[in-house]
Amino acid sequence: MIEEHKTWQSMNLSAIEQRLAWLQQQPDKVIFCKESGVHYVAVTKERSHIKLSLVEKVNRQTDLLQSIFDLNNPLHLVSEYTQAMMLGLVWQSQPQRIYIAGFGGGRVPLVLHHYLPDTIIECADIDPIAIEAAKKCFGVQFDDRLTVKMHDGREYLEQQKSDTQYDIIMIDVAFGNGYFPHRLSTKEFYKICEKHLSSEGVVLANLLHRDEFYAEKITTFQSVFSQVCVCVCQESNSILIGSNSKILEKDEIVAKAKYLQDSHQFSFPLTDRALEIKVGRELAEAVPTLDKAQIFHDDSPPAGYFDCWLF
Fold first, then answer.
1. CA proximity to 225, closest of 257, 273, 182, 193
2. Predicted pLDDT of residue 282
3. What are the residue ranges in the chain where pLDDT is below 70?
4. Is residue 208 within 8 Å of residue 236, measured between CB atoms?
């Protein structure tokens, strides 16, 4: 089985490189740009880096980065927050089924699809233009194991059969300006995630350090999951990690990440991301306002949450 996986992975990497070969010949420029709602979805080549950004129609000088990858190493996760999302494998190293709300350039789905040849990965996203850009410029190809539905991330999960369970659920739904939908940040939503989570499963959610409601979102997460860790990346993102399975100590998390790093031979430093995790007392010290933060509910968004020109 191991040899079969290695053979498939070698063929898959070759196929990804073939789909990206046309980009190698392109000069540094915008290579894709289409209108999508209040934004333009733009893909730019800058030497070996391919970037997918949202450009605001009212301010075309904006460059709200959504996804980035290196043409010379398409399986390398450049962004630290995408590396941190892979920490879900610490809790579920051989997941049978993964759900990802939010697709963007499809970096994490593509990498998971490559390293986990037996895993089904279901994604949901509301932006068909971003999905088109991912297929054209990011080497993504859908098959019976990697699918994306044009659907709201919460509604997709709500509409699954009651016995549908995922080993890993990832929430990465945000506009480039840092707005994260309220209905994907509430206790009710995380209870839906819990309902569709396997007994040893894990939920990961992306948010920004500068989020005005940073503490509230962590507190809300803690109201549903018995163990909550936060990976505080050097960049602007934090990844919430929640599980109701066996509590893992920090040294165990790091050891498991190192094992995954070595066994899969990831080119990105998963162990470094594990070292950035705050758990227990470390988390309480890092976010001292947690004990005073309110829990988000569907019917009571906090004042100021929607104070953004986009809405």
1. 193
2. 92
3. 58-63, 175-179, 307-311
4. yes
Strand bridging mode 197-208 / 166-171? parallel
Residue with tokens 């594990």: 274
DSSP-assigned letters across all residues of the chain: -HHHHHHHHHHHHHHHHHHHHHHHTS-SSEEEEEEETTEEEEEEEETTEEEEEEEETTEEEEEEEEEEEETTBTT---SHHHHHHTTHHHH-SS-SEEEEE--TT-HHHHHHHHH-TT-EEEEEES-HHHHHHHHHHS-----SSEEEEES-HHHHHHTS-TT--EEEEEE----TTS---GGGSSHHHHHHHHHTEEEEEEEEEEEETT-TTHHHHHHHHHTT-SEEEEEE-SSSEEEEEEESSS---HHHHHHHHHHHHHHHT-SS-HHHHHHTEEETHHHHHHSTTGGGPPPP-TT-PPTTTT-STT-
Torsion of CA 104, 108, 113, 119, to 10 degrees: -100
Task: Note the pLDDT tens digit of each residue in 192-207.
Answer: 999 999 999 999 999 9
Quick one: pLDDT at residue 2?
Answer: 80
Angle at 126 between CA 124 and CA 128, to 5 degrees: 100
Residue 193: HSE in the Cβ half-sphere, 13 Å Cα cutoff: 33
Residue 175 has a pLDDT of 63
- Looking at residue 227, its pLDDT comes to 95
Q: How far apart are CA 110 and CA 9, in angstroms?
A: 12
- Residues counted in the chain: 311
Residue at 162: amino acid letter? S
Convert 162-173 to b/e letters by CB count within 10 Å (16 or more is b): eeebbbbbbbbb
Question: Contact 277/230 with Cβ under 8 angstroms?
Answer: yes
Q: How far is it, in rounded angstroms, from Cα 18 to Cα 15? A: 5
Q: What is the pLDDT, as a whole number, of residue 311?
A: 40
Say which residue the tokens 């165990």 belong to.
252
